[in-house]
Amino acid sequence: MTPRAATAATLGLLAGLGLLNPGMGRAAVTTDDTPTNDADADAALELTAEPTETTDPVRSSIYHGREYFVPELAENTFAIDPGPRDYLHRFAFSPAFGRLGDERFFAFRAAFNPNRWLGWEASIGHNPGQSVHALTHSLNAVVRYPLPWRIQPYGTVGYGMIMVFPGEALNSDPVTENLFSAGGGVELYVRNDLAFRFDARSLTVPGGDPVTGGSTTYQYRQFTAGLSFYRGLAQ
């Protein structure tokens, strides 16, 4: 009797006595009699292997040798999203220059938009005149109706202070007065986060009349041009 036949007979005897699960005997014989095949083993591994997750490739921020802080702008720098401009929870930083009356004027404005139509803007400006120079600061409400175009008009009204400093040729003290402003402007969007800004305002300064000694108001015209940089809270 060959060793394989003896093993089969022994397993059969144990199964008959109830000492061995019949399936084990068949599995042993089948395993012993079935030759192994590398191709079948590889196929079994492929069937039992867990599928790997596929992810979308991350858009590169380098395009034509330039690295972009906003990858979406790499392929189309001057694109804007369709639909009305989105101002909700966005910050804006706006340097500007222009004229206050007949003199030069430089300003920096920072704004936050708590909703889509209203923004709060703080600004500081300097008017470097020849005999006197002035420093202004104010808080304005900026109201707009978002439009689905690159051009976005707005209106603004606010309150602040103006400090007038006399030059060395004048022997007088600095003067601080209330400042009321009202006006509007337009933004021309280059892309979602950048726009040219043009602004015109009327400034009203209550003060005293040096001739009559009574009260009067002084009116000034302010024109500025600049840029608006927009950033969202999540950016």
Question: Would you write up a description of this structure?
Answer:
- The protein has 235 residues and is an alpha+beta fold.
- The chain has a domain at 91-232: Beta Barrel (Porin), CATH 2.40.160.
- It is built from three helices and ten strands.
- The protein has helices at 3-16, 22-33, 38-48; strands at 62-63, 66-67, 90-100, 103-113, 118-127, 132-143, 151-166, 175-191, 194-208, 215-232.
- β8 (175-191) and β9 (194-208) form a beta hairpin.
- The longest helix has 14 residues, at 3-16.
- The chain is elongated and about 65 Å long.
- The termini are far apart.
- The relative contact order is 0.12.
- Residues 24-32 and 53-58 have low confidence and may be disordered.
Low-confidence stretches: 24-32, 53-58
Mean pLDDT: 79
Topology order in helix (H) and strand (E) letters: HHHEEEEEEEEEE
The structural class is alpha+beta
> What's the level 1 CATH class of the domain at 91-232?
Mainly Beta
Question: N- to C-terminal separation?
Answer: 82 Å
The name of the CATH architecture of the domain at 91-232 is Beta Barrel
| Cα Rg | 40 Å
β-sheet strand percentage: over 45%
Largest sheet descriptor = 8 strands, antiparallel, barrel
Spatial ordering of strands, largest sheet:
3-4-5-6-7-8-9-10
